[in-house]
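During the no-cost extension, the postdoctoral fellow (Dr. R.K.) reprocessed legacy sequence entries with the updated structure-token encoder. One reprocessed record is reproduced below for audit purposes.
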Amino acid sequence: MPGALDGLEWYLRPDFSKLGDYKIWIAAFGQIFFSLSLAMGIMIAYGSYLPEKSDIANNSFIVGLADSAFSFLIGFAVFGTLGYMAFATNTSVQEVVAGGVGLAFVVFPQALNLIPGFPNLVAAIFFLTLIIAGLTSSISLVESVTSSLMDKFKISRTRAVNTVFALGFLGSLVYTTTAGLYWLDIIDHFINYYGLVLVALLEVIAVAWFFNLPSLRDHINTISEIKIGRWWDWSLKYATVAVLASLLILDIWGNLQKPYGDYSIDALCVGILVILLGMLVSAVITARRGKDVA
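Re-encoded structure tokens follow.
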């Protein structure tokens, strides 16, 4: 399509000045944590299903590199389409670029509607793949909760899944309201920015400072083809903690100066309450005695 190469050029041309913007870094951390299912219990649940002698380091490298490579490849389709949209609307690529829910549900439908030939068919295929992506993501998200409920309270998978889906359905009804897209944007921002980065920070602190890290590294090296050195201890204990903590503090301070998305402070409080509610529910469930406790 005409203009597609302009979109790809904008996608592939680096702007090194952006590396000094902390918002770019915290957005990148939030994205990769979500994409790799980190800091949300999914990898812990899936890891519990691995055979005892699984090659942990090798599996981690494969998953990380494959996920990043796939994301990079999809960028060609996304920015090629946005480049064509910019050409068709006589605007610049930067003007049509959007992120988050705005890209999937606002900009991309507009772009697909401009495609000559069979725009309705292309749009139907796009949203079908989006539904499949959502379903596969929801399976992993639900598994992290249901596996915990099954292990702690000794209930059947059917009961655990039905409970989680019922609660998720009721909570998601707010997204069907007139302001649903705005609520989705706010809650998605707070969970994927503050929620994931905060949980990741707490997990790293717990593992690096309260567990025997050298013993864990020795175990990984014993069963893995790729060996990790002492740099791993230093990275977890100091570098990762310092980076994540600094980004959180900077972003919180930035939002106090200029609220995200120009929303009112009252609206942004919803995102904060969702995070606090999640932490409260987690604490209550953790405090309850499981069926296997005497």
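The mean pLDDT is 87. Residues 4-287 form one domain. The remaining legacy entries will be reprocessed before the final report is submitted.
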